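step 4 of 6: structure.
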Amino acid sequence: MSSDDLKIETKTSGDGAEAAVGDKTRVLVCEGTGCVSSKSPEIRMALEKTVNELGLGEKVEVGFTGCHGFCQQGPIVVVEPEGIFYCRVGPKDAKDIAESHLVGGEPVKRLFYRHPVTKEVVPHYRDIMFYKKQQRIILRNCGKINPEKISDYEAQGGYQALKKVMSAMTPEQVVEEVRRSGLRGRGGAGFPTGAKWDVCRKQPGDTKYVICNADEGDPGAFMDRSILEADPHTVIEGLIILGFAIGAHQGFIYCRAEYPLAVKRIRIALQQAREKGYLGEGILGSDFDFDIEIFEGAGAFVCGEETALLSSIEGSRGMPRSRPPFPAEKGLWGKPTVINNVKTLASVPVIIDRGADWFASIGTKTSKGTAVFALTGKIANSGLVEVPMGAPLSTIIYEIGGGIPNKKAFKAVQTGGPSGGCLPGTKLELPIDFDSLQEAGSMMGSGGLVVMDEDTCIVDVAHFFLSFTQSESCGKCVPCRVGTRHMVDLLEKITTGKGTEEDLAKLEKLANMVKQSSLCGLGQTAPNPVLTSLRYFRSEFIAHVTDKRCPAAVCRQLVTFRIIPDRCTGCRQCVKVCPTGAITGPRSQPHNLDQEKCIKCRSCYEICRFDAVAGEAIIIVS
Amino acid sequence: MTVKSSFGVLDKICERRKDLIPFLQGAQEAEGFLSPESIKLISRRLKISENEIYGVATFYMQFRFRPPGKYNIKVCLGTACHVGGGQNFMEVMKINKNLCHGETSPDGKFSLERVACLGCCALAPVVVVNSEVHGRMNRVTFMQLLESLDPSSKAEELPETTESPG
C-alpha cells in the first residue's frame, strides 16, 4: 500500500465517523471498573429501555465507553454532541435523562457535576476544571470510544501509525523516531525507551519477544487498568510497532489477575485486531508476522519487576534475576526481550503519528511528553490526571484536584507508591519529572499520587508502605528479606509508643543499607517512604518517640477516645456499634466510655452524628 | 553439534512450563481452590513434580489451597483504602467472625482475603464480596453488609462480642 492510498483512506474514514456522530445524539455510559461497581450497566439498560419506549431509537444512540478517569464521580453519563456531563447517576435517573433531556431538550440539573469545595455547578464536560487543566495524550481516547469496538478506535485515527510504519518505515527508522522523541519508560525507572529498543534490535538471532507490563501492583495506582479497559487497541498497536521495530514475532501482555474487566477487553480487542489483519500472519499485506498472547499474573507485586515478570511467564516463582545481562540481551527463555509499561506503549502510536519533534516539544529538558497520575486520598477531585512533565505539584493538587476537602490542612503528598516518598508542603512548587522527584528522594514510580491531610499520620503511612513491601519481598536476597522485616519491627515499636531515639538512628542506617544492597528495584526503593518521611517529617517521629504522642491521632496505642458529656445527646448509636460493649448509658443521657474495654476501633467516632451547635460528641485525643 | 541439537528439547520443556500458571488458574477457577487431586493431574500432564508445582503456587497470592466460603470477602488495603480505614474491615471480621487473612469460617459461609490494590482507589475504601465491588465503605456500612449476607448471625453475635478480645 502506498502512502497516497493511506491519505485517502484516512480522509474517508474520518468523514464517515463525523457524519454518524452528527446525526445522532449519543448517550454514553461509563463502564470502567469504578462505574460498573456502582451499577452503570444497569443504567445503560434502563436508558436503552426508556429510549426505546419513547420511540427515540432513530435519533438517540445509547452506548458505553471505558473509564473517564473520574471514578469518584461515577457512574458517569455523557451526552454528545453537546458534551453534557452527568455524574453519580443511578438507574432511576435514566427516565429523567430520557424525558427531560432527550425529549424536552432540558438537561437534568440535579445530576450536573458540582465542585466539592466551591460548590460551583458545571454542566459541560469541557468546563470542568479537573479536565480543563489536563493535557491528555496517553489517555486521549479514554472515555471517548467504545473499547469493545475496533471501528471506534479507527475513527479516532487508530492503527494509522501501524499503517505508516508498515508502508513507509524501516525498523531502524522506527527505533530512531522513538529515540528522538525522548520517550522514557513510564513504569517507574524512566529508562530511555529508544535506547532499550535499539539494544534489543541489534541482538543477533531470529527469536525475540516483546512484553507489555500491565502488572500494575502499586497500591494507589490504577491508570494502566483504566487504559486497558478504555482503550486496549492503543496498547496493542504500540506493541505491534515495537515487535516490528525489534524484529519479534511474539508478544505478551502480562496483566494482573485482579483486573478481570481489563483482561476481557484485551481479549476482545486482540480478536478484532486479528480479524482486521493487524495481527497474525502477513500484517497489512507485508511479510511481517506477529501475534500477541495474554498472560494473567497471579498476584505477586514483585512480578512488576521485569526479570521477575519473565520468571513468572516461564512458569516459575516470580523472583528477579541479577542484571546484567539485561532482558534486552537475554530475556524470556534467554532470548532478547523488550518489556515496556502500558503507558509507554500507549505513547508509541502518537509519536509515530505526529512525529518525534512534536512529542519532544512537550515536557521538560530531560523528561518528554506527559505524565499520568492517579490522584487519590484526601482530595476533592480524585481520578486520573495527565499533565505535561514539569507541571508543579500545586497545579495537580489545587487546580485539577480542587484542594483538600472538609476544610482540613494539607500535610503531605505521597508519590510513586511504595517505592516513592512523602513530600511536604514546601515541595509543592516542585516541577515534577523523573529527575526532580528523584532528587527530592521520591520517584515517579507508577504514578500514584496520594494526598494526605492533617488527619494522616506520616509514621503510620511509612509503616503501611513498608509492611506492604516487606510482605511482597520475594525472599531471594538478604537485605530485602531480613532488612525490611527489621525496619517494620522498628516502625511498629515507634507507632506503639515503645520507640527510642536510638531506634530512629538504627532505622535510618538500616534503610540506607537496604537501599544500597538489594538485588532488584523492590528492595532498592522500599526504604524510600521511610527515608523521605525522616527527611521531611522528623518532628513527627520525634513526637512518637519522645513525647509518646501521635499528632494526627491515628496510632492507636497513643490515643484515647472521650465522650464530651455536654455534647452527648444520648442517642445510643455508639452503644449499638461498639464491638466490645465499652459504651454504656441510658437513652437521652450522656453515655459513659469504659477505657479498659475500649479497643480504639473508631466505630463510635464514625457513627457519632455531628451536632451543628456543639460539635462532635466523641473526640480523639492524643 | 550436540548442544545445539538439544535446543529443540529445551524448547519443549519451556513450552510445558509456560502452561503451568494458566493451568493452575484454570483449576482454581473450576474448583474454587487448588485441590491435591488437581495438582496431581497437572503434574502428570506437564511432567513437573508436585513439589515443584506447590513451590510455584504458594509463591503467588492468588492461589488458595482450601475451599473459599460462600461469600469470599476481599478487603482492599491499598494506599487510598488504608488512609480511608480499610484495616477496620479486617478487624471487624476478626471480632465478629473470628477470621484472619486466608481463613474460611467453620460453617463455610465466609472467607477473608486481603488484597494489595484493586485499582478502584477513587472509591476507597473498597470491599469485594465474591466479584461485586462495594465502594466508599465505613465500619458501620461494612457491618450492615455482613448482616445482609448472613441475617441469622445477628442474634448470636451479641453475647460473643461483649467480652473484650484484648
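step 5 of 6: annotate
 - Residues 177 and 581 of chain A are 68 Å apart (CA to CA).
 - The mean pLDDT of chain A is 88.
step 6 of 6: archive
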